[in-house]
Amino acid sequence: MAQSRYLSAREAAKQLGVSLPTLYAYVSRGLVRSEADGNLQKQRRYHGEDIQRLMERKEQRRDPARATAQALHWGEPLLESSLTFINDGKLYYRGYDVVTLASQNTVEDTAALLWTGDMHAQIAAFHEPLTKSASTKLEKIISQVQSYPLIESFQIALLLASSEDSTAYDLRPGAVAQTGGRLLHLLTAVAAGHVVNNAIAPTLAESWVPRQSTKAIKLLNAALILMADHELNISAFTARCAASAGATPYMAAVAGLSALQGVKHGGGVSKAEVLLNEIRTADNAGPLLSRRLKHGENIPGFGHKLYPEGDPRAHALLQMMAETMPRSPVLSLSNAVIKKARALIGEEPNSDFALAVLARLLNLPEGYGLGIFALGRTIGWLAHAIEQYHSNQLIRPRARYAGVMPHID
Fold it and tell me: What CATH number does the domain located at 6-70 have?
């Protein structure tokens, strides 16, 4: 059942099945957030997501088996992780605010932080030039995959490189971090289309947007950081399952890429790109969005279950784009879409929409918005793999059988 963003005291108490004094006790204990109602200053309203969370906890105590099944669908936490914390509309990597990281640090810093806990850790591939032999192998891989769409080229490159990298079978945390550096360097080279010895964001900017590389570096660096991890999303969980079986970091990344391409995950970026292509001009935003709703279609790129007040990643990236290229007609278009979508469905843009706007702003080919998502999220997949290798536990949930029972003669 959909949960309202805010509830009155009586509505909240009714949903929880408790008295008003008990509701107020939950508030005093920090279990439910309340604030002054904007329309009725003498009354208070209560956060619906907190009420929903308490209801789920009560259900878990009453029916543990059912609660465990629901945990696989936006339910109670399923695994422990020290990587990403989502709380009160903000996102943190190992205690660092992600928006701050995106504005002050590099992709390499963020990768080191997520993989080792120390953003100053030395990852060889980030600091040491390629040997002639390694450069030759990389050039060969790039030539083999360059005719494929970007995401598919990532997967094929990982498969080809894994057969040449025997050290990837060393699954100790420090060794996996070093493998991660080589892997990220590989994908960056594939995305750029040539072998380089440079940092990730500058490499992409100089290859993709040479005439505006200085501005593009800032935007691409921020986008990759903002997309690096997002707790236990489907691609991270898939990569983590592969790692739990002892698959190498290359194969964990391939697994993550496979899940990311699903229309309900990374496909959201592609849908948002299609939406912008359909609208084309700011004047078309209202009629086309209204028509979508009339035809029973949704508006892709808006709303996020974990951020009822708005996705901080989207807000940060859109704001950075506005500061970097304020006169771009692409931003006029995106602002018109945001304004109209907000009026129609009451939702804020999410990271899918922001990536679609970024790809259009930099005039990138089709699929490159998702490519930025994939390259950034690879950092998170490897971080989850490192945690899973360290735990040495196989992820193997049981299924509740719902089929035909055995026939007994």
Answer: 1.10.1660.10
